[in-house]
Amino acid sequence: MAVISILELRLRDDVLDGAPAALDAILADTRAFDGNEGIEVLHDVADPAHVTVVERWTSVERDDAYRAWRATPEGASGLGDLLAAPPTLWRSEIRSTL
């Protein structure tokens, strides 16, 4: 069953200018990971330090595999260097569409 993972990010003020390019570089590996069906990066129009990453995965197992890979030295992304606070992740299964 497809899964949507939503990652809420609070960026440091001193990295805002370069953050879009840095996020694009980080998310290239996410997009290429087996089971990823797409990513959208939402930039809050009222708060430039608030970014939401919406990821679509084929299954919770593929998302779990991706998160486990990111926790390894090979998968480390450097995302933490951009953040003013720990990210928040929540996931939802897609059970129906209109």
TrEMBL record:
It comes from Amnibacterium setariae. SUPFAM superfamilies: Dimeric alpha+beta barrel (SSF54909). Pfam families: ABM. This is ABM domain-containing protein. Residues 3-94 form the ABM domain. Coiled coil: none annotated. It comes from the Bacteria. PROSITE patterns: ABM.
